[in-house]
Amino acid sequence: MNYPPGYRRALAGTQPEYLHPSYKSSLKRAPSQPLVYLPHTLSEITGPVFAPDTVNVKACDLTRQHSGEPLGERIIVSGRVMDEDGRPMRKTLVEVWQANAAGRYRHTVDQHQAPLDPNFSGQGYAMTDSEGRYRFITIRPGEYPWGNHHNAWRPAHVHFSVFGPAFATRLVTQMYFPGDPLLPFDPIYNCTADEAARQRLISVFDWENTIPGHALGYKFDIILNGREATPMEHR
Amino acid sequence: MTSRATTAQTVGPFFSIGMERLNCAELAGPGVAGERVTIEGRVLDADGVGVPDAIIELWQANSLGKYAHPEDWQEKPVEAGFQGYGRIPTDEDGKFRFTTIKPGSVPGPDGKLQAPHIAVSVFMRGLMRRAVTRIYFPDEAGNAGDFALRLVEPGRRGTLIARKTPGIDGLLKWDVIMQGPGETVFFDC
Q1: Taking CB atoms and an 8 Å limit, are B85 and A37 in contact across chains?
Q2: Which CATH number fits the domain that encloses residue B101?
Q3: What are phi and psi of A124, to 5 degrees?
Q4: How many CB atoms lie within 10 A of CB A109?
Q5: Does the CB of B144 have a partner CB in chain A at under 8 Å?
Q6: List of chain B residues whose C-beta atoms are within 8 Å of the C-beta of residue A36
Q7: Does the ipTM surpass 0.90?
Q8: Nearest-CA neighbor of A203 among A157, A134, A144, A138?
Q9: Domains in chain A: ranges and CATH
Q10: What is each CA distance from B180 to A56, B42, B48, B51, B72, in whole angstroms?
């Protein structure tokens, strides 16, 4: 039995460094010692498997989780989860959370002076289909101020948590919106050196998935680490 | 290669909205075999202050050293209902606590068994991408030859090994020190 191949590592610059002085919260939380390179073992090649029956329709329609309609602009956020070789990541769990249309999270720590919406929780989850696709119906989240520096505002964003097939492929990220004027000023968005990598965090306006008269579409594909070639493929 | 992996971003301070549904601090139900252990500790910043908005995820094999995953080729059983996954947010003092069974040894890439361990992902506000570490067990003969521990300089290996609690069997202590003296070893994974 050959040991199963591991997963590829990030190309330099395409993932954020831990320490970003412009992002104040990183100063005392960023590891300072060099990371120890860990060849992938069975522990990293495997990862949690979630049953499809843990997902329901309401979980992927954030506008239908309460008795009334949430305030704000309905949008469709959809895309595919794939690996770096374009292989669909099937039956993988995607979790999302976000602020409401006014830029307020339903969370006790969020004291931004903007209204909560009794009809919007801002959380959802979905499992990708056989093509790696996911789809959420939600509300376009509002921008909001935060305390990082004077006049700091977060661009509109949706948080994504994705598992993929292995411990090694675990990813938590944020999706942004095209044309957001706050992006050049956001320390979190700008933490990653590679400009193309940053821009892949911006969703694409999506006519194809727009529902006429109802909701605009935004497409956000998520790419997880590709697999190392197997020893056989080297021959 | 057709594209590059998506860039990670911090979970931010409000992750519980989307993540609490899968919170799980009891990794092994009643039908799961193995030695029960409770592991508790704190996530600490560079000043030794508890991080109140961190969340840790755990991934482990069962007591036979078998993962509940289709790529684990070993012909060993997995108990129904054993997933091996846990997710625990820290409390206001940065504390976390979970109960599980001590995992068995799993094969390493060097043809030897790895010492029993739990794979850990740490997320928090201020951390742009997850920090990856491992929990090993005290008094474990296999630790000395463990493939991953041997990648770590000897003076720092102890950060990966849980400590016994004098007088309390089955209670282990393990802290995550993000930065500074005693900084936990984190892996490039």
Answers
A1: no
A2: 2.60.130.10
A3: -155, 170
A4: 11
A5: no
A6: 151-152, 185-188
A7: yes
A8: A157
A9: 48-228 (2.60.130.10)
A10: 44, 15, 9, 14, 37
> String of b and e for B127-141 (b: at least 16 CB within 10 Å)?
bbbbbbbbbbbeebe
| End-to-end Cα spacing for chain A | 17
Q: Which residues pair with B171 in a beta bridge?
A: B38
> What is the extent of the structural domain holding B52?
27-177
Residue count of chain A: 235
Active site residues of A: 105, 144, 154, 157, 159
Distance CA A153, CA A148 (A): 9
Tally the domains of chain B.
1
Per-residue pLDDT of chain B (189 residues; tens, 9 = 90+): 458 999 999 999 999 999 999 999 999 999 899 999 999 999 999 999 999 999 999 999 999 999 999 999 999 999 998 999 999 999 999 999 999 999 999 999 888 999 999 999 999 999 999 999 999 999 999 999 999 999 999 999 999 999 999 999 999 999 999 999 999 999 999
> E-assigned strands of chain A?
36-37, 74-83, 93-98, 123-127, 133-139, 144-146, 152-154, 157-162, 171-176, 204-205, 216-219, 222-224
Beta bridge partners of B88: B56
B129–A15 CB contact, under 8 Å: yes
Instruction: Report residue A95: phi and psi, to 5°.
Output: -110, 140
Q: pTM for the complete prediction?
A: 0.97
- What does the alpha-carbon distance between residue B111 and residue B114 come to, in Å, rounded to a whole number? 9
Q: How far, CA to CA in Å, does B20 sit from each of A82, A231, B155?
A: 25, 40, 36
